[in-house]
Amino acid sequence: MTTDPLAPLLALADIAPAVERARDRVDQALRHRALRRHGGQVAAEVSLRCAVASAALEGAAHDREEVRVGTVTDPVLQGALRVAGALPGLTENWPRAPRQVLARLHVLAAREVVPVDELGRPVADPVVGARLDALAGLVAGGTAVPPLVLAAVVHGELLNLRPFAGPSGVVARGAARLVLMSTGLDPRGLVGTDVGHREREPEYVGAAGAFATGTPDGLRSWLRHYLTAVEVGADQLTAVGDEILAAA
Asked: Any idea of the CA torsion for 84, 88, 94, 100, to the nearest 10 degrees?
């Protein structure tokens, strides 16, 4: 009988109830009445906000309204927009071929940022390669933990490894969103988790560093941050829905 490598995370103090709270908040947000008639508009707005937040976390902060009207040409921001726009089309392949999808995310994120011959190619480090293989195994069915926990681990591990040159964090955040989409927790990518990371950026950076230690306390710190960011993302969906209904 194979032991689930991520199961011990649910035994960390306060994590199991935090997972339930975040899941409940997501479920509640996904019932917003704006999604009945304006689902496409809501999805587009959340995608924009996540891209702007992800680029800012990578050091490319720009005003959202300027991004909206197309006046920002920053390559990191443009890469984050490409990643956000591509996620729905990558959802089906993500659990089947995660390493291939990660390479695609990097091509989208890092175009015009890194040399062409580095696009989609992980760094040549056997340790990184082995850990990417292990992570791909988890994504492909190697764990039965709730999607929120798997997404947090995927995100934290990719931030820690930085397996690609350039804006590797944009890849990590895109991959985490793919976990939630492909598992059906957030199938349309409506939960603006990246906005939650951006709003709590000092905590995000600190918790990611704690995750890298691999200690129980470090892992717990990251999971708590990630689950809080999901709740903020669910609240962001509710706010977007309210704004769209008010303008309708």
From this structure: -60
Burial class (CB in 10 A: 0-12, 13-18, 19+), 88: middle
Query: Which residue, chain included where needed, has tokens 């040549």?
Result: 124
The Cβ of residue 17 has, within 10 Å, a number of other Cβ atoms equal to 10
Whether residue 248 has pLDDT greater than 90: no
Amino acid sitting at position 117: D
Q: Token digits for 113? A: 């940022």
The one-letter amino acid code at 226 reads Y
223/194 Cα distance (integer angstroms)? 15
CA 24 to chain centre: 19
Query: How confident is the model over 87-143, as pLDDT tens digits?
Result: 999 999 999 999 999 999 999 999 999 999 999 999 999 999 999 999 999 999 999
